[in-house]
TrEMBL record:
Residues 85-131 form the F-box domain. Transmembrane segments: none annotated. It comes from Phaseolus coccineus. Gene3D superfamilies: 1.20.1280.50. InterPro entries: F-box-like_dom_sf, F-box_dom. Residues 1-27 form the signal peptide. Keywords: Signal. This is F-box domain-containing protein. Pfam families: F-box-like. The keyword Signal applies.
Length: 398
């Protein structure tokens, strides 16, 4: 009994000393011990531990054990945090849109294969309009867009677009970016049918169809047939397709009368343009600029060899009448009913050097020997004028 009393007094004195001293760092970790441990640590157990020489070792082991518990819990928390790292989809809508808008077409195609949410964003037309305009804007016009719509509608009408066209597009994507399209997906919501579905009439589909060379579209070619002398400083309509291997174009010109259609390969970008006037090459252009033509103005005029041929656009300038000496102070050519058109890349005296048209009643004029002149359009853009000057022949033509 005396021993028990002495033991209790010693324990209370020990607790009092703990209250006067700051707690060690491991004391805060005592809350991590299970409740069973605190229940078993009774007064009788404490008295026995005080008599036991291993008590000191037990007390020293508590901080080490608690440190292990803390490290284990900390590692588990870190693993949970790592498994919940922020992804691209967690970004705000505006930030994600800004990122996608700065991606090139190849990267957008790769993002399409990631998950359904990114696919719905990356095939959006507003992302591809800029890429379409930036790469194909100089050669694509309203006629090309109508051709694409007709192409999509014709495929839908026969029922082959849903399977054939999409399989062709997915095959094209898998060839250019094989790893992204063959890698298994971990998104449980993405079924194979959902992953392969792309809007067939989207701008993305149109862009990829042109970029792969699978879609032909109408455009115009400067100096057709590799700069043939008979077509210098002219621009003719043709069916164009892109060659991604050489970054050039192929052209098929419509047949001229009994002549079969002509073909040309390796056409560089600078020899192509979108048609400035949305009309058939067989239609006569209505000239609305005749009253605004002055000497020195740059023009394009329709010309064709005979009635069976389509028109081509030929470059020229407005000249002075024979009765005018060319002086700016005394020139009255713009008041005349006759407009002189000059093609200065031909030698003086050549039958192709000059022609005249009526300012008031201009229609198709010409004959089978010299060809037929059609409508006139005034060139107001300095960029267009610079293109014609760049194509100027190195030698004067006869």
């Amino acid at each position: 009994m005396l021993l028990y009393f002495i033991t209790c007094i010693s324990f209370f004195l020990f607790l009092k000393s703990l209250l006067l001293k700051p707690l060690p760092s491991w004391a805060t970790e005592m809350r991590l011990l299970p409740p069973l441990f605190s229940q078993e640590l009774s007064v009788r157990t404490i008295s026995k531990l005080f008599r036991n020489r291993f008590w000191l070792g037990f007390v020293c082991q508590i901080p080490a054990r608690m440190s292990l518990v803390r490290k284990s819990l900390t590692s588990r928390v870190e693993n949970v945090e790592e498994s919940h790292d922020m992804s691209v989809l967690d970004l705000p809508e505006l930030a994600l849109d800004c990122i996608l808008e700065r991606l090139p077409p190849s990267a957008l195609c790769q993002m399409v294969a990631v998950c359904r949410s990114l696919r719905e964003r990356c095939v959006n037309d507003h992302l591809w309009e800029r890429h379409m305009k930036q790469k194909w804007g100089s050669v694509i016009g309203p006629a090309a867009y109508r051709e694409w719509k007709w192409h999509v509608a014709s495929k839908r009408s026969v029922g082959g677009l849903k399977h054939g066209r999409q399989r062709g597009l997915m095959r094209f994507l898998s060839l250019r970016w094989p790893l992204q399209w063959t890698r298994p997906k971990v998104d449980a919501n993405n079924s194979p049918k959902q992953r392969s579905s792309l809007p067939v009439d989207s701008i993305m589909n149109w862009y990829l169809a042109i970029d792969s060379g699978n879609f032909c579209f109408p455009a115009q070619v400067y100096n057709r047939e590799n700069g043939h002398v008979g077509f210098m400083l002219s621009c003719y309509d043709a069916e164009i397709s892109y060659d991604p291997r050489t970054d050039t174009f192929q052209a098929r010109y419509p047949p001229h009368g009994r002549r079969a259609d002509a073909r040309e390969c390796g056409i560089p970008w600078e020899r192509l343009r979108a048609p400035p006037i949305d009309a058939s090459p067989h239609d006569l252009h209505v000239s609305e600029c005749l009253n605004d033509l002055y000497p020195g103005d740059h023009i394009e005029i329709q010309w064709r060899r005979n009635k069976e041929f389509p028109y081509g656009w030929w470059y020229g300038v407005v000249g002075h009448l024979e009765s005018c000496n060319g002086s700016e102070n005394y020139c009255r050519c713009h008041n005349s009913d006759t407009v002189v058109l000059e093609f200065n890349h031909y030698t003086p005296g050549s039958r192709w050097r000059q022609t005249t048209v009526s300012r008031k009643d201009h229609r198709e004029e010409g004959n089978e020997a010299d060809g037929f002149y059609g409508g006139i359009r005034k060139i107001k853009s300095e960029a267009e004028i610079a293109i014609w000057k760049r194509l100027w022949p190195s030698e004067v033509l006869d």
